[in-house]
Amino acid sequence: MSQPPMNTTRTCPYCGRDVVLGKLPIVATNFGDRLTGEPLDRPASGAEPLRWVGEWPVVAEAPLPASQTSNRGPIGRARESLRGAMPLPRPTELAAFEDSPARLCTHDTCLTPLPAEIDTGRIFIVPVVGTVAAGKSSYLTVVLQQAWREQRLARFGFEQFTLDEQSVETYRQEYHRRLFRRKEILPGTQFDEDVAKKPLVCRIQYEGSDPALLFLHDIGGEMLMDKSMRRRFGGFMRRADAIIFLIDPVCLDRPDGRSWAERGVLHADDLDYPQGPLFRACVEELEPGRRTPIAVTLSKSDLVADALPEIGRFLKEPSDRQDADEWNQDLSDLEQTVIRALQGLSEWDLLNAQRMLDPELISFHAVAALGSNPQNGEVIDLAPQRCIDPLATVLFRIPALTEPAT
Predict the structure, then answer these.
(1) Which end of the chain has a smaller Cβ tally under 10 Å, C or N?
(2) What kind of architecture, by CATH, is found in domain 123-402?
(3) Which residues form the Double-GTPase domain (predicted)?
(4) How many Å separate Cα 147 from the centre of its chain?
(5) Where in the chain are the domains?
């Protein structure tokens, strides 16, 4: 893709504020050895920083002046306008490659280096949402295994789905190793006021479309369920391009009248969180005019398969879903089954709340990230089912992600 003009405005994916790309300084994000007596690391190239912004060394000034004071009068304004219309230089054209230069969001509450894709604006935010212990981290672990390592989206036209290098390490150590290697139950996601700056970043490309970044956010249930914390630290949810909303069946009443504890579900008596209010908040707090697809997803579906046999029949992913038509028909059949399952679980509040959305934006799914009930803190028989469906559905419903390349 060609570079945009220097006066292009983008939205910072971390703080949500608008930035003019040509007015952002270039900082080093790769460092060499710290010299004796210096409090901060130096750029890997050894270049002397022009100045520091927070903890970041500036290695090239913004190509456009940050202030208009020197451009008073019609001639100055015309000169500024002409310069702003020129192509935006890439950071690596202004600073040493080994410094991994990046534009810096200069808003005081952010001061975060921006990914290169900020130039194209092709950054899409998809948070995984749910109440405490709804299975968000387990789902995210499995769906990334399937989308990235197993490339299960390839048959539907996604030519690329990879994790960036920093996210690879986070995923490997905090998610994949624990669940797939050690067979451990993942701990609950802890409160983190910097959650907006710590997405798992995927590089994704649909056939015939330009490459893009996908920000997958894993947010603690306690933070999501607290209105003050959600609005203070989870502002990226207002700008979500899609949402995967996990419904925890353990918070609902089994249709057969048996207790979840009786079925061997750990800590079941503590899981009684209403889920409709959080769903409403997700919809109501979206930026005005934003058309955000939401995948309403029954989590831990294997736990209700004995009480709702219809769900059990659909949990096994068909092996013959080789094209989009077969996949869409299968999902349509499953969608009606999930709606009936939610009715059987008496989740009427959420079913009523989903009417707030355009029917074209909402879909219903059932997943089993673990596929078995953990025993003594271990996942003995890990057998994930249907986890790719919600992600694939919302990706297809983000028009800008799959539109033909310009």
Answers:
(1) C
(2) 3-Layer(aba) Sandwich (3.40)
(3) 125-317
(4) 14
(5) 9-115, 123-402
